[in-house]
Amino acid sequence: MAKKIVITASLTGVLATRAQCPYIPYTPEEIALEGKRAVDAGASILHIHARQESGMPAYDINTYRRIGEEVRKLVPNAIINYSTGAVGISNEERIHHVTALKPEMAALNMSSMNYAIYSPKTKEFYHDFVFQNPFKDIQFFLEKMKAAGTIPEMEVFDNGHINNASPLIDMGLLQKPYVFSFVMGVLGGIPISTQNLLHQAASVPPGSHWQVIGIGRKQWQLIAAAITIDGNVRAGLEDNFYLPSGEMAKSNGELIDATAKMVRMLGREVASIEETRAILNLKPAHEAALPA
Q: Exposed, middle or buried: residue 217 (CB in 10 Å: 0-12, 13-18, 19+)?
C-alpha cells in the first residue's frame, strides 16, 4: 500500500501582503474560502494566522473565533491549526485564543532565533528581529495547550531546535505522536537542501510525525525530497506564492493541487482528513467543534 502523505495548507501568514501577492486572504470570510479551496484540493490541516481587514496581524480572540466559525461552515471536518507566533506582544496574548477556543492543533515555536528577510537587490534587510522563545515560555505555552486539549505542532527552524523537545518530553509536557515541522529557508534558520532535510528527518525522536515547510520558490524541491522519504508536507500562500511552473498562484487551492499532484506522481497517496485524524490520534470531526 502506498504511503499516505498529510498535506497542510498555510493560508495567509502575517508578513506577506497584497502588494506582493493580490490573492492573500485577510478577512475571516476570505480565509475560510481559501481553506475550502485548499481542502478541496487535498489539504487535511489548515494552518491559520488571524489578520485585520487592513492586512495587519490580529491577535484577539474574537477574530480567531470568527475565522473558526467561517471555516466550520465551509469545511466542518478540516483540522484547524492556529498560530501562536508573534513578536512584541505578551505570552498571554500569544496563547489566549488557544485557551479560549481550544483548536485541535496550534503552532509552537521551539527556540529563539534571528529572523530576517534580506534583499540582494537593494542590499538591505527589510525584516530583522529576534524571535524570542526561551524554555520557560515554551513550557508556559505547552501547559496552556495541554489544558486546552490542543496538539502542539513544534516548529523548528534549525536542527538543534529538534533536541529542545527532549526535556519537555521528560517533563511529560509532550505526548506521542510528537508533531514536528521543519521550517527551512528562513534567514537565521536552516537553509533549504536535501542534505539538511535528511539530517533533520533522522534527528526526530521515535514516535514522531513530521512535515517540511519550505519558504520561497525552492519549496518545491524540498516537498519532492520529503515525499520520497515518506515525509509530510505544507504549502500555501504564507510560504510561497509561486507554482512549480513559476507562475504566481491565484489561490491556496492551486498550490495544494500542485502539491497533491506531486505526491501522486512520486507514488504516494494523499491522506484524507479522516486518515490524518487517525494518524494524529484526533477525535472525529463532529466532536471537534470550536467553543462558542
A: middle
pLDDT at residue 199, rounded to an integer: 98
Above 90 in pLDDT, residue 20? Answer: yes
Through-space distance between the first and last CA atoms of the chain, rounded to whole angstroms: 41
Of 216, 146, 157, nearest to 181 (Cα)?
157
Total number of domains in the chain: 1
SS3 content of the chain, % helix, strand, coil (to 5): 35, 25, 40
Q: What is the CATH number of the domain that holds 33?
A: 3.20.20.70
Q: Is residue 200 part of a domain?
A: yes
Residue 64 and residue 78: Cα distance in Å, rounded? 15
Could you give the 3-state DSSP secondary structure of residue 94? helix
Tell me, what's the pLDDT at 286?
62
In this structure, is residue 292 part of a structural domain?
no
Q: Considering the domain boundaries, does residue 127 fall inside one? A: yes
Domain region containing 267: 4-287
Q: What is the DSSP string of 246-281?
A: SPBPSSHHHHHHHHHHHHHHTT-EEPPHHHHHHHTT
Predicted model pTM: 0.96
Are residues 156 and 180 in contact, defined by beta-carbon separation less than 8 angstroms? yes
Residue 99 lies in a domain: yes
Nearest to 32 by CA among 52, 54, 50: 50
Tens digit of each residue's pLDDT (9 = 90 or more) over 215-251: 999 999 999 999 999 999 999 999 999 999 999 999 9
